[in-house]
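Tip: read the tokens left to right.
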């Protein structure tokens, strides 16, 4: 934790932009914050409009069995959030209440439900699209938007446990997918520059778990499978990843049986926008009062 992170969080809470909920990384949002998020979402849609993506919305929970098949627990067990619930009888209920009363651990009797919290907006999409059968010749392009959960409690307001991710996901041939990612690398940079923030594009890797994960991280970096658009929020030296551009090669295609029109394994890529991070970057760069943000930025977001 850096001082700058704690100070920025304090400022956001003092201005009522974020609302303390008693857990690090879990915040309420003010109307002003939500308005910025909404306007940014509209701006993203404007940049992507010509591609005519299919809009699909999933709730912030996904099927546990699909989550198990996705391999997420192999790569990021430390981040996953599963939903557990009480399923006992009257006697067990009384025992649970007694444990709560005695401030003992009452959660150990909770049973896993069929739902887990969505870790990234695109996770529920692949099995849903695989069920449709082979893709049409032009492949698929999807517009997603979901709250996501990652168990990474932090003081840094830009590292939340529950946050929104807007994504475009491309499924198709290698050429279609690589060209999609290239287009969005350029668009993403132009989009963020239009908002008057300082941006830098860099090769990145996901936080794969453990010693085996180190190899996956190195491979991801070496092959330039992940890029991030970084914007300073609480540090100039360590700017925050606000947009991600991921090329999964045929990883999800093979996992879910996604096929192109000529029955080859489909490739996939996604561009993810961290909605809270972008909003926080804007508050950091332009100040706590949106009415005094630069005119050019207000014009891009609110058209005034
Ligand atoms: P990733 O799947 O890790 O590339 O995440 C996609 C985007 O979600 C990132 O570029 C971030 O902008 C955003 N994001 C990831 N983790 C968090 C978090 N803990 N809090 C807020 N935003 C996040
Ligand atoms: Zn994704």
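Filled-in amino acids:
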């Amino acid at each position: 934790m850096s001082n700058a992170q704690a100070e920025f969080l304090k400022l956001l809470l003092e201005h009522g932009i974020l609302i303390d909920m008693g857990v690090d990384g879990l915040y309420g949002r003010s109307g002003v914050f939500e308005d910025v998020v909404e306007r940014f979402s509209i701006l993203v849609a404007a940049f992507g409009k010509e591609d005519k993506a299919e809009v699909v919305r999933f709730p912030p929970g996904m099927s546990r069995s699909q989550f198990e098949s996705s391999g997420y627990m192999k790569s990021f067990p430390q981040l996953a959030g599963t939903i557990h619930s009480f399923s006992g009888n009257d006697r067990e209920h009384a025992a649970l209440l007694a444990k709560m009363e005695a401030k003992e651990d009452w959660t150990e009797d909770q049973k896993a439900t069929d739902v887990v919290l969505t870790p990234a907006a695109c996770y529920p999409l692949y099995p849903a699209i695989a069920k449709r059968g082979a893709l049409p010749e032009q492949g698929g392009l999807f517009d997603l938007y979901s709250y996501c959960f990652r168990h990474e409690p932090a003081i840094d307001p830009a590292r939340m446990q529950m946050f929104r991710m807007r994504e475009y996901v491309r499924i198709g041939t290698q050429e279609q997918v690589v060209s999609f990612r290239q287009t969005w690398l350029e668009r993403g940079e132009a989009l963020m520059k239009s908002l008057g923030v300082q941006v830098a594009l860099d090769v990145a890797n996901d936080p794969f778990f453990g010693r085996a994960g180190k190899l996956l991280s190195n491979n991801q970096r070496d092959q330039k499978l992940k890029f991030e658009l970084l914007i300073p929020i609480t540090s100039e030296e360590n700017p925050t990843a606000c947009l991600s551009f991921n090329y999964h090669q045929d990883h999800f295609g093979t996992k879910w049986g996604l096929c192109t029109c000529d029955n080859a394994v489909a490739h996939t890529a996604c561009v993810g926008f961290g909605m809270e991070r972008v909003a926080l970057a804007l508050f950091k760069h332009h100040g706590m009062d949106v009415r005094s943000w630069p005119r050019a930025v207000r014009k891009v977001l609110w058209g005034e």
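Residues 120, 122, 167, 246, 270, 272 surround zinc ion (ligand 2) (CB under 6 Å). The first helix runs from residue 3 to 14.
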